[in-house]
Write a structure and sequence with these properties.
By secondary structure, this protein is α+β, with helices and mostly antiparallel strands. Helix content is 36%, strand content 20%. The protein is built from 18 helices and 21 strands. The protein has a seven-stranded mixed β-sheet with strand order 4-7-2-1-10-13-12, with no helix packed on it. The protein has a five-stranded mixed β-sheet with strand order 15-16-17-19-18. A hairpin with an 8-residue loop joins strand 5 and strand 6. The protein is globular. The two termini are 36 Å apart. The structure holds ligand BES and zinc ion. Zinc ion binds next to helix 4.
């Protein structure tokens, strides 16, 4: 509440990192990154030391800019927050150079053997810093409130290409003995969770003037087709939110182990290969990650408790972009689906549960574990209420102004509220009361004045789900013209458990198990698990051993362990699938399935 980032050891008021220079090489066989992080520090008068974050790092030596050793101490390790690294500041130039290497298990880097990639010939590695994992591959101040520009020189084994969330300086550098070296630079200051690095058999295909696709060469054709509309998304986003401030906007398709749908790394959006549905039906994730270029990346929540500022503004923009591209009805379908997920989360957590508030209490908790759909949908819903009160045009121009005023800053919810009062509410007490800002920000549950989204298409879908539930044969349902979004909603709306014969009837009629759309397949498999449907077990096993996306994997395991029927399957499948999963996901699953 007071705006301090409790998830970092850094004391930026004393001394803060303003620029990072990374010079590192990837030892793929040893699964270690080795190198030097040179940090430029801004210290307040009289400060004697700078405090950095580390986790699972081996610190080799620390020196100043001229090579003289600097004394340092490491604090006690905490399994989530890591160890504070306190370095005595040099007398001369305020530069601290840390020589270090990562551990094979450092959770911020995920190493894949060649067999675990699409191409099968060359290993792959990717970083994932969000929420507080960058400290496990770069010793710096890993705080949302400490923005840093960066440059990097990354050396990789022959055959590998490195990419980062930055300007690419040497697409094809020439270092020693078959190794390859890549140079990067990001001038705009960002919080460290947005620093991203990946390397593998990566190729590139432009899809627009400022947009292009990086992917394993084996996936490049499919990926370039699936995301061909990226440039138009970017143009629509600019029309709503103002100029894109990051230069290029490229996209990297990751291997199946990537635990999220997407991640908004500046200039290099990460996406899951589960978006490659073959029909462009899942590209809203790209709109979402592009929207983060304004919400989250341009301004960043100053603490993880303010995370809703990041995701709520992003979902609002994502819906606006989809409305511009696909029309009001398609956007309304997305919004309705979101509200259903929000309602389900409030039901699951309890209407009074603190985690159903926008401003969260995350003391002692890993902000990466605390993520629910609430900051996403409730956050966007608050912006909808304000939009409805003041009108779309006024709200949009307020938003553009906000993005400019907050650009390249880390801000708290309180600072945003002050800005809103100054630039939009302008002393109109009646307006603020109608919005109910306090209620939205700090009280649990679903506020009564939300704007309830409506979709005639999904209402028809829900009607068919009810008809099926009350006995209508699958073949007689009115499903003509349904696309993936309709099918997903249909499967989510069906009441469980279903008797085996009715599930079989559904599966035979619509072949969900063969769906190329991961959202549809997931919704089908969850329905099957909730109904203890034995014939679906091979499909569930195949899905869980080939996809590491947390949004699908966690709920399926959680549903499996709920019954004596499912638990043995969960244990067997987790044992097989574990090497695929990201470290953070595997740890969370251990809590669900048992280690
Ligand atoms: N920044 C998030 C991913 C994230 C959240 C990483 C929390 C670590 C902790 C990203 O922008 C996101 O929200 N991705 C969603 C997709 C989106 C369309 C809702 C996802 O991965 O499912
Ligand atoms: Zn997001």
């Amino acid at each position: 509440v007071n705006g301090r980032d409790i998830h970092s050891h850094a004391r930026p008021d004393e001394a803060r990192v303003v620029h990072l220079s990374l010079d590192a090489s990837l030892d793929v066989e040893a699964r270690r990154l080795r190198g030097r992080a040179t940090l430029r520090i801004e210290a307040s008068p009289g400060a004697e030391a700078v405090t950095l974050d580390t986790r699972d790092l081996r610190i080799v030596a620390i020196s100043d800019g001229s090579g003289a050793a600097l004394p340092f101490t490491l604090g006690d390790p905490d399994p989530v927050f890591g160890r504070a690294l306190r370095v005595t500041l040099p007398d001369g130039e305020p530069v601290v150079a840390v020589d270090y290497e990562t551990e094979p298990g450092s959770p911020g880097l995920h190493w894949l053997a060649a067999e675990q990639t699409a191409g099968g010939r060359i290993p792959f590695v990717f970083s994932q810093g969000h929420a507080i994992l960058t400290r496990s591959w770069i010793p710096t101040q890993d705080s949302v409130a400490v923005r840093q520009s960066y440059d990097a020189r990354i050396t990789v084994p022959e055959g590998m290409t490195a990419v980062m969330s930055a300007e690419h300086l040497t697409p094809d550098g020439v270092p020693a003995d078959g190794e390859r070296c890549f140079g990067f630079r990001l001038r705009e200051p960002i919080p460290p969770y947005l620093i991203a690095l990946a390397a593998g058999d990566i190729g590139f295909r432009p899809v627009g003037a400022r947009t292009g696709i990086f992917a394993e060469r084996a996936l490049l054709d499919r990926a370039a087709w699936e995301f061909a509309e990226m440039e138009r998304m970017l143009e629509e986003a600019e029309r709503i939110a103002g100029p894109y401030r990051w230069g290029r906007a490229d996209l990297l398709v990751l291997p199946p182990a990537f635990p999220f749908g997407g991640m908004e790394n500046p200039r290099l959006i990460y996406v899951s290969p589960t978006l490659l549905a073959g029909d462009r039906s899942l590209t809203t994730v790209v709109a979402h990650e592009l929207a983060h270029a304004w919400a989250g990346n341009l301004f960043t929540p100053a603490t993880w408790s303010d995370f809703w500022l990041n995701e709520g503004f992003t979902v609002y923009l994502e819906l606006r972009i989809q409305e511009a591209l696909q029309g009001a009805e398609r956007a309304a379908m997305l919004e309705v689906y979101g509200h259903r997920e929000w309602e389900a989360a409030v039901q699951r957590l309890g209407a009074d549960a603190p985690d159903t508030r926008l401003r969260l209490d995350l003391a002692g908790r890993d902000p990466g574990d605390a993520v629910t759909v609430v900051p996403y949908v409730k956050g966007a819903a608050l912006l909808r209420v304000i939009e409805a009160e003041v009108g779309r045009e006024r709200f949009t121009s307020y938003l553009r102004g906000w993005f400019e005023r907050a650009a390249f800053r880390s801000v708290t919810t309180a600072e945003w509220v002050a800005d809103l009062r100054e630039h939009l509410l302008a002393g109109d007490a009646g307006l603020e009361a109608r919005i109910g800002l306090r209620r939205w920000l700090d009280e649990p549950g679903v506020p009564e004045n939300r704007v309830v989204p409506r979709s005639v298409v999904l209402e028809a879908v829900e009607h068919e789900a009810e008809r099926f539930g009350s006995g209508t044969a699958a073949a007689r349902l009115a499903t003509d013209g349904w696309r993936a979004q309709e099918w997903r909603h249909f499967l989510t709306a069906i009441r469980t458990p279903l008797p085996g014969n009715r599930l079989r009837e559904l599966g035979d009629a619509f072949r969900f198990a063969a769906s190329a759309n991961a959202e549809v397949l997931f919704a089908w498999l969850r329905l099957a698990v909730r109904s203890h449907h034995d014939p679906a077990i091979p499909d569930i096993e195949r899905f869980l051993t080939s996809c590491g996306r947390a949004k699908f994997v966690r709920p399926l395991f959680a549903a499996l362990v709920e019954s004596a029927w499912g638990r043995p399957h969960a244990e067997r499948i987790f044992g097989r699938a574990r090497p695929l999963y990201h470290a953070a996901l595997a740890a969370a699953l251990e809590g669900i399935v048992g280690g």
